[in-house]
Automatic annotation (TrEMBL):
This is Ribonuclease R. Pfam families: CSD2, OB_RNB, RNB, S1. The gene is rnr. Its main location: cytoplasm. Keywords: Cytoplasm, Exonuclease, Hydrolase, Nuclease, RNA-binding. Residues 639-720 form the S1 motif domain. It comes from the Bacteria. It is found in: Cytoplasm. Its EC number is 3.1.13.1. Transmembrane segments: none annotated.
Length: 733
């Protein structure tokens, strides 16, 4: 017996065909627009749209015909349909955030409404950092974001990865360390180069055929057993493309350079060999690239010289030394070693301003009154003879105890530096005092202790005179021809007010008020905050969040200002032993002092871009090495409850910085089984659906370590009020 028709539903259907057709047309058009360049027949469209009821199935063909008539859809001779809407095309860089999708950051910010979301299936085997050409879909996706599809990989960012070997009877995979490499790499057993299960290796991609889920590679370097200090540091070096040794050709060139300074060279320079001069550096430093000279003038003023190693006197253009310095662009400081920009013969020998040796320098010499006002200055080449090499601690002790070598001169310099510093902040400079962590390591590299570096007056003294020299060199070149001469500047844009508003909201959760309503008030408000948080548990978290809300400083030939320092023009002149941009500055400065005309800016701009990229890479490598030691340190630390601060909140977990050790770990949402937590992205918090318990950035919490993973450089935590205590484990694989 058949069912009686439902009159209510029947009546609804009778009056609704036009609405159903319009809705169906909208769905079909959205689907075809989102799959620009592809063709589908009606059956495929029904299947892809998951249309199951017969009424709508039957309506697909008529709706498609109407869309073809309107010109919104085209039909070919085989009765396949496609969108006629024109997409956009952009070039950008892949930011592969997780295995499911990536974002493309457009080269031209004006080319798209923000970053473009690309689903994993549409990445065309692009990897993080790759330069790609993207087709931007005409309509935004379900997420409300602009979406697209990679059409072509223009340039691979990297083809070598560090990872751990996993061997099965017939084949092997390399599990990459790099968190943004979401594919294991298949390796034939014959291409393992002798690597064994659970060893760390460097693997080079050799093939990735279309349709293959994983790329194929071959091992090019075996690093050793995972978890060992030297192996893990080498893994970080390989991960960030840092060199393991200095190439032979530039080393040979460096060793062939004479250490004799000719009388002719001395005559061409201002002679400061009889003027009191000293260096102040970290106790373990060997590359002393700046020295300060001091003398009192007959008029009562002081002459203070900032003398910088004249690296470009030894490193000539178009040499192997020059090419390698440019390629490296910066020295890199890992927890246990320095990877120098220049070979040791130069960095620790010829160019290092060692005591009791004559050295060639480039200098900015100031005549100042005792209030720190610059009466006049001179920039040019000098020759010096350093009288004393201080470690920071030694020089600080001379000031504190008012005793020791040249304590009177150091004290006067310190007083002047404080006055210069105050003027800088009065003019709008921002005082960022970031927390730096240092490890005490045994002979095997195992962390025995962790300490926070303390910045004392002597550190600030050196900083102020280096800043002053950098500022005056930049202004000297700018003023020659009102900024039209090609030069290398260090610039820092004003912060984005929206990002600062967000940061202000975070600071309020710690009880700090920040007025960022106008650009004029920003620096004062931030400096007030930095003073308030000194020594407090939230200091490191808020400092890091404040820095993230700022623009990134960069190198460029554009004569823009430096917001953070409140300088109209600024450069890097004072560290040519460890920074390539300083070498560029020395070359251009010498060129102009010798009467040269302005060169074409474009080649210099490209060098600036390269230097900025290498600087970021070095900073990432340095952070990775610190994170590795933090994870190892916490794996060996006492098993106890630690106080911490919520330093980040995401949909997948809560980051907590442990106050005692400054180490950051994560409590994963999937492990928080007391409730189901939902992520409130706008307010950066998790909310329990039943308890309404909120976990917010800045919350003070108590946590315990449940797992440490050296491979992934992660620390897993849990809230200490979790009654089910889990045994702590440490993973090296």
């Amino acid at each position: 017996m058949g069912r009686k028709p439902d009159r209510k539903n029947s009546k609804h259907r009778k009056g609704a065909p036009s609405n159903d057709a319009a809705n169906l047309a909208r769905r079909i058009l959205q689907f075809l627009d989102a799959h620009y360049g592809e063709e589908f027949n009606s059956k495929q469209i029904i299947k892809r749209l998951e249309i199951r009821d017969s009424l709508n199935k039957g309506g697909v063909e008529p709706v498609l015909s109407k869309l073809v008539e309107s010109g919104a859809v085209s039909r070919n001779s085989r009765n396949f349909f496609s969108s006629t809407k024109e997409p956009g095309f952009i070039v950008g860089t892949v930011d592969y955030v997780n295995p499911r999708f990536a974002f493309i950051v457009p080269d031209d910010p004006e080319a798209s409404d923000g970053d473009i979301l690309i689903k994993e299936a549409d990445l065309k085997q692009a990897l993080d950092g790759d330069k790609v050409r993207v087709m931007v879909f005409p309509l935004k996706g379900k997420t409300g974001r602009t979406e697209g599809r990679v059409l072509e990989i223009l340039q691979r960012n990297r083809d070598e990865f560090v990872g751990r070997v996993e061997i099965s009877p017939r084949f092997a995979f390399i599990v990459p360390d790099f968190k943004k490499m979401h594919k294991d790499i298949f390796v034939h057993r014959g291409d393992l180069k002798g690597a064994e299960h659970n060893e760390k290796v460097v693997v080079k991609l050799t093939e990735w055929r279309e349709g293959d889920r994983n790329p194929t590679g071959e091992v090019v370097r075996v690093l050793g057993k995972a978890g060992l200090h030297e192996v893990e540091i080498h893994s970080i070096m390989a991960e960030f493309g840092l060199p393991f040794e200095y190439p032979e050709e530039p080393n040979t060139e460096a060793n062939a350079i004479s250490d004799k300074i000719t009388a002719k060279e001395i005559k061409a320079r201002k002679d400061f060999r009889d003027v009191l001069t000293f260096t102040i550096d970290p106790v373990d430093a060997k590359d002393f690239d700046d020295a300060i000279s001091y003398r009192e003038l007959e008029n009562g003023n002081l002459e203070i010289g900032v003398h910088i190693a004249d690296v470009t006197h030894y490193v000539k253009p178009k040499t192997a030394l020059e090419k390698e310095a440019y390629h490296r662009a910066t020295s890199v400081y890992l927890v246990d070693r320095t990877i120098p920009m220049l070979p040791e013969r130069l960095s620790n020998g010829l160019c290092s301003l060692r005591p009791n040796e004559e050295k060639l320098t480039f200098a900015c010499v100031f005549e100042m009154d005792r209030s720190g006002h610059v009466v006049k200055h001179w920039i040019g080449r000098t020759v010096i003879h350093s009288d004393r090499r201080y470690a920071y601690e030694e020089a600080q002790e001379c000031i504190d105890t008012q005793s020791g070598d040249y304590f009177r001169e150091l004290t006067l310099l310190n007083d002047i530096a404080k006055k210069i510093r105050k003027k800088r902040f009065d003019h709008g400079a921002v005082n960022f005092e970031t927390v730096e962590v240092k490890f005490k390591l045994d002979e095997k590299g195992t962390p025995l202790g962790l300490m926070v570096k303390e910045r004392k007056d002597i550190h600030k003294l050196i900083e102020e005179f280096m800043l002053l020299a950098n500022k005056y060199v930049a202004e000297f070149i700018y003023k020659k021809n009102n900024g039209t001469d090609t030069f290398v500047y260090r610039t820092h844009d004003s912060p984005d007010l929206d990002r600062l508003e967000t940061f202000s909201g975070f600071a309020k959760r710690f009880g700090h008020q920040i007025d960022v309503a106008t650009p004029q008030k920003i620096s004062g408000a931030l400096n007030k905050l930095m003073e308030e948080i000194q020594g407090k548990p939230e200091q490191n978290v808020l400092e890091q969040l404040a820095i993230r809300s700022m623009a990134k400083a960069k190198y460029t030939t554009q004569p823009k200002g430096h917001f953070g320092l409140a300088f109209p023009h600024y450069t890097h002149f004072t560290s040519p032993i460890r920074r390539y941009p300083d070498m560029m500055v020395h070359r251009l400065l010498e060129h102009y002092l010798d009467g040269g005309k302005s060169p074409d800016a474009e080649p210099w701009e490209q060098k600036c871009l390269h230097s900025s990229e290498r600087e970021k890479n070095a900073a990432d490598a340095e952070r990775a090495s610190i994170k590795y030691k933090q994870v190892e340190f916490m794996s060996l630390a006492e098993q106890k409850d630690y106080e911490g601060i919520v330093s980040g909140v995401t949909e997948w977990g809560v980051f907590v910085e442990i106050t005692e050790t400054k180490c950051e770990g994560m409590i994963r949402v999937q492990d928080m089984d007391d409730d189901y937590y939902e992520f409130d992205e706008r307010n950066m918090r998790l909310i329990g659906s039943k308890s309404k318990k909120m976990i917010t950035l800045g919350d003070k919490v108590v946590v315990r370590v449940v797992n440490t993973d050296i491979d992934r450089r992660t620390i897993d935590l849990e809230f200490a009020d979790n009654d089910r205590k889990k045994p702590r484990s440490r993973a090296f694989n």
